[in-house]
Amino acid sequence: MRGMARSMGRTDLPKGLRKGTIRRVFTFSRRHRPRLVIFLMLTVVSAVLGVSSPLLAGQVVDAIVGREQVSVVVWLAVAIAGLAIIGAGLGVAERWQSARIGEGLIYDLRRAVFEHVQRMPVAFFTRTRTGALVSRLNNDVMGAQRAFTSTLSGLVTNVIQLVLSLAVMMTLSWQVTALALVLLPVFVLPARRMGRKMADLQREASTLNASMTTQMAERFSAPGATLVKLFGRPDAEAVEFGDRAGRVRDIGVRTAMATRWFMTSLQLVSALAQALVYGLGGYLALTGDLAPGTVVALALLLTRLYGPLTALANVRVDVMTALVSFERVFEVLDLPPMIAEKPSPRPVPAGPLSVEFDAVRFAYPAAEKVSLASLEEVAVLDQRGGEEVLHGVSFRAEPGRMVALVGSSGAGKSTIASLIPRLYDVDSGAIRLSGVDVRDVSFDDLRGAVGVVTQDGHLFHDTIRANLAYARPEATDDDIWHAIRQARLGKLVESLPDGLDTVVGERGYRLSGGERQRLTIARLLLAQPRVVILDEATAHLDSESEVAVQEALATALEGRTALVIAHRLSTIRAADQILVVEAGEIVERGSHDELLATGGRYAELYRTQFAEEDAAA
Asked: Which helix (H) or strand (E) holds 186?
């Protein structure tokens, strides 16, 4: 395969294919090289056996024409049968090795992409279309795998058969061989053009398949399906999906027809070459220059010559399309994670933790740093971004105390909260847990120290037990039940027929908003973090659900350092310190009573909110 890759000139590479892709493919397959060596050895032996059979068949014809003893013909037939049996066994062994190599490569690629994507910042996921990313893990990985199974096997087998067949034919009759090679350019020239064309079609098909996967992933989710039904666009959705599916269909038809025309032309040339061999070979046999068996052997060897040439022309197409798949996988792996763990992280201090922001400045990263145009399914990445949204934020939450963040929407409250668990990293300044910069702490220690409850209360499509144990896999059922009761969900879970084994549905949509939120609080309690971040945990709940959630939160915050983002100011009156955030800066700080007394922005927000609630009442 390396030789085949070298034979591809730069002009043969499909548009946009990077030069280093071939080298990286062999680097990536290093772990499978012992199996590759065994596989190639089996392939070589199979190819040699494939060339031996025509020679034996020629000897059988000569023995019949020369009226040799019956035993000679029988032993030649036995030898041909033996070669067939050995070849069948070698074929099974080859398939075993190729399957192990191919499936192992799929495993390596999928795991590498999955692990790499897990290290990407949240900004990557907010921009990337899920279906496009899933397509890289499925369609492109499978396309890359074919390079090390059918493609590699076909390449090695056919190259060896081609060389051996040509060498043997030259020894039998150089005149017939030369005539057979007259049509050889007809094989080579179309292959160079077809490889590039098929690779470009493969890239276009991969992009369209990713678009379909994305649309299905979004529309088949509970909130997506609800949105489609509420706004009455199922027909339009079907038309849009049909348009994409139709384009994939059209590309499939074009690919199939291009391949068929190509292969039919090559088979026709092969048949014409065989006719020439029979014609010239028959003439030489009649004039006594060749034995009849030699003519038969040459005709059979011709299939071993043009058959590999036909297959190699197709292998070239497969190699080019596989390289496109590899490149699309490498494209994801080459996108560097913005947030990395230090080689020698510091431990988080024991005991209650303080949280300190020291002159923190932050700007959300530009698209080019965290995303790919192909994953967003756009021609050019959005050029916006990089504008600073936090300007020198400084405050300190003492151990075991509650600090509340209030302010207008878009002021930067959630951004501040997202920096503590390192969903993003600060651009300047520092965030410290009891004096230790969060960038110096390992990811595991940081996750163990900091717990977050968001307003959407996300759950996986799994059981209650699995969703809670996700935060602490070693937790026992007793631990889980204790957390559930602390979250005021004991009666609900006990009333369910399957109890802890109840499946909550995608994103927990089988539960009410309050139940879902209390389940995320139970997950937090099970994790037992020392710092708790609540990002508007009751923002979208009705009054009854809010009361239940507030009771659960009171338990969750007890004895822990808390950073609470609140829309309803009535919920944070008891906070030890309230920070008013506007336009990425802290404009006021103090207790509830102190801020009301100053008559500033907090007092204005407080009066406005209660006036709205009174009007609503």
From this structure: helix 184-219
